[in-house]
Write a structure and sequence with these properties.
Blueprint lengths: L5 H10 L5 E4 L6 H8 L6 E9 L2 E8 L6 H8 L6 E3 L2 H6 L16 E5 L8 E4 L5 E5 L1 H7 L3 E3 L1
Parallel strand pairs: 2-6, 3-5, 5-8
Antiparallel strand pairs: 1-7, 2-3, 2-4, 6-7
């Protein structure tokens, strides 16, 4: 499986003529690291949480400090709460993903859910496919290429 790198994601977004910026920084793994390095408000950070639901990968984009609400996710996906698991490093690797570099623009997700709060920001910051780059994109430009399920 080809790795979902910044180079690939950048190329895909440019082919679709989507406007975005990227910020280069030291390699970062955690949300706290990203917020501190970029000096960005945590609610503008779109962390991508990857779940395994019946063997399929599901991405959930949340503001940095927000926690998963399994009840909401289960209801939206029409599954039992107990059938939702965090994707393991092995699950991620088999899809060409790795912790610290997951981007919502990777096309390996069966479903993508996004917290409505992120769509109210002027910009949101999300993973780029590389640990040393972060994408800055407006919600309207994000929605040009991704059709997520909006959750609250």
């Amino acid at each position: 499986m080809e790795k979902w790198s910044f180079k690939k994601i950048k190329s895909d977004l440019e082919k679709k003529e989507v406007r975005f910026e990227h910020i280069t920084h030291q390699p970062l793994k955690t949300m706290v690291d990203v917020v501190n390095a970029l000096d960005v408000e945590e609610e503008k950070m779109a962390k991508t949480v990857v779940l395994n639901v019946y063997g399929d990968l599901v991405a959930v984009l949340l503001p940095g400090a927000k926690r998963l609400n399994y009840t909401v996710i289960a209801r939206v996906l029409g599954v039992n709460r107990n059938d939702i698991k965090f994707a393991t490093p092995k699950d991620l690797a088999s899809a060409g993903l790795s912790i610290g570099s997951i981007s919502p623009f990777s096309d390996v997700f069966k479903d993508m859910l996004i917290d409505e709060i992120l769509l109210t920001q002027d910009y949101m910051y999300c993973g780029s496919g590389d640990e040393d780059k972060t994408l800055k994109i407006s919600p309207s430009n994000f929605l040009e290429v991704i059709s997520p399920i909006i959750i609250s």
